Amino acid sequence: MSLNEFAENDDFIAFDFEEEEDPETTVNSKKRKREDLRDSNIGTVSLLKDSPWWTEEHKKAAYDRFPTDRLNLEVASFVDYISPNEYDIKARTHVVERVEKAVKSIWPDATVKVFGSFDTSLFLPSSDIDIVVFCPTSNELKKVAKSLIRHGIALYQDIKLIKKARIPLVKFKDALFKYDVDISFNIDSGIDSAKISKDYLEEHPALRPLLLLLKQFLSIRKLNEVFTGGLGSYATMLMVVHFLKLHPMLQMGLINEEENVGVLFLEFLELYGKKLNYEKVGLSLLHLNYYNRKTAGRVLDGVKRPYLLSIEDPQDPENDVTKSSYNMYNVKLSFVHAFNIL
Length: 342
What we know:
Blueprint: H1 3-8, E1 18-19, H2 23-26, H3 56-62, H4 67-82, H5 86-104, E2 111-115, H6 117-120, E3 129-134, H7 141-150, E4 159-162, E5 169-173, E6 180-185, H8 189-203, H9 207-219, H10 233-245, H11 248-251, H12 261-275, E7 281-284, E8 289-292, H13 293-296, H14 300-304, E9 312-313, E10 316-320, H15 328-341
Parallel strand pairs: 1-4, 3-6
Antiparallel strand pairs: 2-3, 4-5, 5-6, 7-8, 9-10
């Protein structure tokens, strides 16, 4: 019997898919040394050799400019270089359509929607695809996994079931294009987050290039996944929006944010790498201010992990968006390292 034949016969074999727990529930049982979080050189790029976005034409255009103008120009070139193209969009759409077919073979009335970076067009070439399925139950992860195999969407060894997390997931690598895909069930918060993201993107022209730049920055350092304690896309967006809305020069209309993305990126690194006291204050977009963590009652994790950032969720003020980003210490170090180089 082939693997596909096994998958079709639920009574014959129970697939022993790899199952993982949510690190949020296990991190406290593991002793973590600060030295384990301190590799701030991860993902450093040689600007002299490995800058395909910075062509000879760009170098000539930047030759007589001030350093800040050259930084703005290179950031614009880099963002253009990593932005999605037509092939990326069509390929990802094809993957979503295939997943929808597999899901509807189980639940014909199910609804399949994308959210996250693909929905907001903020995805990188390495970004995963976030899909939410609205169906009668959220406890049939194995059934969905078997359907993915039957339809040739994923191989058995490329599927992981995250059953004990706050949000259960089916994680797999697409067999055709090798995209990483996350499927969640009956959770609409991701869709609401995407709507907020689109509103902010319309309001701030510098938001998209800054987010793409930061997402790539975090991705090459493996600091972009909440599942492994990193800084997720939603939290990164809230940090950038908070930074832009409270930037004094932007508030007074003294600079154009779209023309100063490079400088804003540098100032972002300085704020979150060197200036902000993570232990004492958190970020609020609802009130457009910094709140006192002690007054807000958000110091419980900070006692043991003072390097954790606290961000109030605009959708749910009781939710701290970065409460699971236990690797924030390394994120902060990477910001400091990048700022010092620039």
